[in-house]
Design brief:
By secondary structure, the protein is α/β, with parallel strands linked by helices. It contains nine helices and 14 strands. It comes from Haploplasma axanthum.
Length: 280
């Protein structure tokens, strides 16, 4: 388990990002770290892998401090879709470079994944499209046998077919070799059900932090012709017309209102509504 305990961090005194942030990433679970650009996702990841250093608080992995702990850091791999040193090389050569620098990298598995994703091994890295580059780094992450793997927005540019393959491969790996997986993203598709846990980060705060199903069960989409009944509750407007209003309510409040249509929200809808400026 990775535990972030009362962590504060700022790039300067005037630019504070986190203030007493506490959360955990559960062992052998797939966690979605979801937020808009600039919400704090990459900063949190950089604190976990010690590219950045906390101002206060601690981050531990199985109760051992991560900072300056080579043994622990060897078990945490982070994949981002930008490694300039590879740009002049062919895809297959890029995989060999990763193998040379990481003993936990399974190049045979990576080459097999090239076939599964239909990525040309002889294409130069600087000739890859945005989606193809994302596929390359997804393959890198899928081929590393650390106990923790963090994918930092590696889906960017992938089409739905390739995203589906990516998630299918993650699930296959989890069945054979369970590990702690963190997927940082602001992109949605119908495969987000692979998440065991979800952390919704907004303006440098984690505003939702629970299991995928619990989060969805905590909210109701409520459609009603007269909004007078919901005045006493906290709600967020989804849609408003001359004849009806559709709002997001906490489930505990939704049971107190009478007539109306009640539906379960999607994770995508929760993300959209909870991270926008609210106007009632």
């Amino acid at each position: 388990m990775i535990k972030v305990d009362k962590v504060s961090f700022g790039y300067t005194k005037d630019k504070i990002i986190f203030n007493d942030l506490t959360t955990t990433f559960k062992t052998n679970k797939i966690t979605g770290l979801i937020g808009r650009n600039g919400s704090g996702k990459t900063t949190l990841i950089s604190l976990i892998n010690t590219l950045l250093v906390t101002n206060s608080g601690i981050i531990t992995f199985d109760d051992s401090l991560i900072f300056e702990n080579e043994k622990v850091l060897d078990e945490i791999a982070t994949v981002r879709s930008v490694y300039p040193i590879l740009y002049g090389n062919k895809v297959k050569k890029g995989l060999k470079i990763f193998k040379k620098n990481n003993s936990r990298f399974d190049i045979e598995k990576a080459i097999n994944l090239l076939n599964i994703f239909n990525l040309d091994p002889n294409k130069k890295m600087n000739k890859l499209s945005r989606g193809e580059a994302s596929i390359f780094y997804a393959i890198v992450g899928l081929s590393i046998s650390t106990r923790v793997i963090i994918f930092d927005e590696v889906e960017l540019g992938m089409d739905d077919e390739k995203k589906n393959i990516f998630y299918e491969q993650i699930l296959l790996d989890q069945q054979e070799n369970p590990k702690t997986i963190i997927i940082s993203t602001n992109v949605f598709s119908n495969t987000k059900e692979i998440f065991d846990e979800v952390k919704l980060i907004h303006k440098n705060e984690i505003i939702l932090d629970d299991s995928y199903q619990t989060i969805l069960n905590d909210y109701i989409v409520y459609t009603y012709k007269d909004k007078s009944e919901i005045y006493n509750f906290d709600y967020r407007i989804i849609e408003k017309t001359n004849t009806y209003i559709k709002v997001l309510l906490k489930s505990e409040d939704a049971i107190k209102v009478s007539e109306g249509l009640k539906d379960k929200p999607s994770l995508e809808l929760l993300f959209e509504i909870l991270t926008r400026n609210e106007v009632r």
